[in-house]
């Protein structure tokens, strides 16, 4: 495999001169800032937010570098992982010409971003046990295939994709393989971020929304080669992560031990939840999970979903998703929330 970023980057992006913000042109400390047309009087809040944030989120990246074992220059921070997904399309896919491959059932934003960016989508369904169909993927690849998206652990199925299958694609595909690891903190599998030096065409997505409990802050991460990260930084808006999110993320990232403890508790609750509901008459199967949710195949997903909403419990109905017919996706909650779900399901009666 001879991956060459210059062969897949869009010509207009290759020559793009990024917007130069006031904070790009001056970095460091000064006593008087009169360069960015900010409100010098401050903010009508207890904390001042009148200064523009660090456009490259240096402090947050340095902390993530220490936690992840990846140099800061290999990290991109986005307004959620969704921003990184969109930038991949805008940077490497020519609208109306190129195509990408997704492997349903999978995270829905890949398809939405493809449609927004007018990029053709090729769907190669996972196998019956929710693994990659490598032969069908190979057949789907053509000269205009720029990206392949693989979610592992996968949403909505919960399982990890076989590592050797992903490595096979990385070694043989001349475009970019995107491994979305939003749920990696709950998995027994190791992250692909340690393989960045091995594969120039690898982009790994992670997030602070799941295990780190910061969904409201919208901080997503992309890990890739310096060449690819440089493209991300060229295309992104100048101040894509606001100051409040940067400061709160930095504060949260000091609490690794707390997050690891929550993960242990959640995995115990996941096992307990599976045991508690597996023998209900309406439960056909519970698929193995490496995530903070379980996919449950039922005899009547629509009726169970409707009943649960009526008693104030919201799960995700995946009945209309390919290969997930009859399935509900249930996020693992606290002990009390899980017990409330179990008690409610005990009262459910099929009509």
Annotate the secondary structure layout.
Layout: H1 5-8, H2 11-14, H3 22-25, H4 58-68, E1 75-78, H5 81-92, E2 99-102, H6 109-116, E3 120-123, H7 134-140, E4 145-151, H8 163-172, E5 176-180, E6 202-207, E7 220-223, H9 226-235, H10 243-252, H11 256-277, E8 283-286, E9 293-298, H12 301-310, E10 316-317, E11 327-331, H13 335-347
Parallel strand pairs: 2-3, 2-4, 4-5, 5-6
Antiparallel strand pairs: 1-7, 6-7, 8-9, 9-11, 10-11
Helix pairs in contact: 5-6, 11-13
Index terms:
351 residues, 2 domains, four-stranded antiparallel β-sheet, 13 helices, globular, histidinol-phosphate transaminase activity, PyrdxlP-dep_Trfase_small
Shape: globular
Strand order across the largest sheet: 1-7-6-5-4-2-3
CATH fold node name of the largest domain: Aspartate Aminotransferase, domain 2
Oligomer: single chain
Structural class: alpha/beta
Query: Which blocks of ≥5 consecutive residues have pLDDT under 50?
Result: none
- At the fourth level of CATH, the homologous superfamily of the largest domain is Type I PLP-dependent aspartate aminotransferase-like (Major domain)
